[in-house]
Amino acid sequence: MGRKWNNIKEKKASKDANNSRIYAKFGIEIYVAAKKGEPDPESNRALKVVLERAKTYNVPKPIIERALEKARGSGDEVYEELRYEGFGPNGSMIIVDALTNNVNRTAASVRAAFSKNGGSMGVSGSVSYMFDSTAVFGIADKSLDEVMEILLEADANVRDIVEEDETVMVYAEPDQFHTVQEALKNAGITEFTVAELTMLAQNDVTLPEESLAQFEKLIDALDDLEDVQQVYHNVEE
């Protein structure tokens, strides 16, 4: 895979370190996942995935509990899940996932972010066919061989297991998220540096310095939008 996933995560966390934006976005995501079914991660797999992600980003417990209580109680806000696809400098590809209670506002904001930062919106499917939905886990306290043995014994179907920056990264089919997670937890691994369902580009591209600066400005503009939950791209950073 070679995406240096921990570097991507650390860069995002560092960018959000001085404000509560990332926590607010998780609050909405937890609420939406909890409203899809029971507000209990043991019976609601979507919620379980979001809570595992929140844990790796150190989202404070009070924020998580408030979102769950809102879902259990009288919370009646309706959010729509939207996906936008587009292009950045030099034909770079970008996917934007959003949760919104105002589709027109979100569409206008995403379109403006693209147009003001050297990008352009594409139609549905224009970019996503070059990405694969993937379950990603990062384990810091086990060797590659140990993790491989655990997953082989559990008969988990994984795409790849590699070591990146002293962290073992496991890439699997999205429907294997819970199988991989449970296999690792049953082996005593309870802490993950990454536990995500994400979109990974089939092929990364390298941009020249001037285009990379513009591309990063575009990604920052999209990340800054209140309704945007995730931004995926195919640029090697």
TrEMBL record:
Residues 3-73 form the TACO1/YebC-like N-terminal domain. Belongs to the TACO1 family. Its main location: cytoplasm. It is found in: Cytoplasm. GO terms for biological process: regulation of DNA-templated transcription. Keywords: Cytoplasm, DNA-binding, Transcription, Transcription regulation. This is Probable transcriptional regulatory protein H7C18_22370. One of its GO terms (molecular function) is DNA binding. Residues 79-235 form the TACO1/YebC-like second and third domain. PANTHER family: TRANSLATIONAL ACTIVATOR OF CYTOCHROME C OXIDASE 1 (PTHR12532). GO terms for cellular component: cytosol.
